[in-house]
Design brief:
single chain; 123 residues; mainly alpha; 3 helices; 0% strand
Length: 123
């Protein structure tokens, strides 16, 4: 019995750079750092850079952060209002929620209480 190979005589690929990197100069990929609206990088352990940055005064840093928090909280408020309205219009019983939904709601409530305490410390 003879075995036949259909790809044995096919030869090499005609695309010489198909399996190589596009950028030969930098072999390490540069890590993109997410930034918030104030331009500060969101990376853990960078408090000292935030504190020692001389472009803004501490009052400006706190003020801008509070405005940003306010804006994010308004988004959260809009989402909760929409979901309360949906629940009421569609007659959804809270007992029919998924198990993870109840867990998520508990965690959100706990985090809001902690945030309220932290904001209270700023007064």
């Amino acid at each position: 019995m003879n075995e036949t190979s259909f790809s044995g005589a096919a030869g090499a690929y005609n695309t010489p750079f198909a399996f190589s990197r596009k950028d030969k100069s930098g072999k390490k990929k540069k890590k993109e750092v997410a930034t918030n609206s104030t331009g500060y990088s969101i990376v853990e352990g960078k408090y000292h850079e935030y504190r020692n940055d001389d472009t803004l005064t501490p009052r400006q840093k706190i003020g801008r952060s509070m405005r940003e928090i306010r804006d994010h909280l308004s988004e959260i408020d809009k989402l909760t209002k929409m979901n309360v309205r949906l629940k009421n219009e569609m007659d959804v019983d809270s007992r029919s929620y998924w198990k993870n939904t109840h867990k998520a709601m508990r965690k959100v409530s706990e985090r809001l209480v902690k945030l309220a305490n932290r904001v209270g410390q700023l007064y």
